[in-house]
Amino acid sequence: MIRKSYFKANLKRNIRLLPSILLPVLAIGLIFAVIGSAAVYSVLNSESRAKVKLGLVGKTEGTYLGFGIDSVQKYDTSKYELTFLRLDEETAKSKLKKREISAYLVVPDRFVSDLVEGKNPQITYVSNKTENNFSSEIIKEVAAVISSTVSPAEAGIYSMHKIADDNGFSKSEIRKADTELSLDYISFVLNRNKIFAPEFLGVSDGLPGETYYFCAVIFFFMLIWGIFCTGILKTKTISYIGYIKSRGIGITRQITGEYFAFSVVSATVLVVISVITGSVFEHIPLNLPGFDRIGVSSALLFSFKILPALFMITAFEFLLYELVESSCAVIIGQFVCAIVLAYMAGCFYPINFFPVSYQKIVPFLPFGAAFSYIRQAFAKNISLSGFVAVTAYGLAFVIISVFARKARTERSGR
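The structure assignment produced for this chain is given below.
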């Protein structure tokens, strides 16, 4: 009975402090919303994406090769990632040295006539010798495509002309066949995405980048949640602990009563934020992978699923206030911990950016497990091992808090 009364007393106190907590939370939430909106606008605006710039040296105007390049540049999805710049060789070399272009291709002067004569002219790919990045790999593929696809297409068209002339076809018949063959080649190039089925594995746990970082924002917000709750979590004085103990409430009951009151308020705030977020996404749908199904009901379900991760993180924050007596020091310490732990868990950079050896141990670290659990909840693929891990770490933090308070009271002689 005394234990329940202590829990209720703490819960009522926390509810009274809740308005002063929600104000800075809403302010931070508004900042996150503005940053997120800017990021979403950047993703949706394809023209704003950084493009690979490729120089093109040689006479391609008025040829089928030039027509094909222009078509790809104007009508193909490649226009969002690749830009062709027609340059002379000296200008191309200068721009390459200044890194204004990623590389350039040199088309031989007799490229077309050699094709007509049945030869196999090569397009030269020029880049910095030290260049070995994603852009250079794209351009190598472009050069290979031009040599293996565009060049044979042009040779095929000119060969068709020669065969038609040799067999006495009229000019109108040749023009008609020319048009049909050209359209076939263009259709092949522009619709090449239909000949394969892409499969996207996602950044982690099957999530694309947008939803991965959405989960990262939630995770980081949980890590700094304790800073807003300083009024609730501030370290209890030795005299207060002694007074409560004299009323028959031991250290263990104190810790559990205070922690569960804090976790109930934290869960309530999470649910409220989920309802607000779900309402926003219902009225302002985002054309991003994974966000098409978010509404109030799905947001609420998601918030309930990630409660174990929330309880684990709030247990850690509760522990920090037990270990550090100064409120100022614990706020600074918690912010530093949030940055470091978020980085280690893959909040800023996906885990696959780290060494393989580190990737193997991250799921077993407390906050790596918590972040992975949140991602799994969003992907609707929660593992039993993930649930057990975050629950075990949460209980461990509460138990350590009990020992920390006992050690503090013993040092004071109480």
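Interim note for the steering committee: The chain has two domains: 2-44+207-412, 48-195. The first strand starts at residue 52 and ends at 57.
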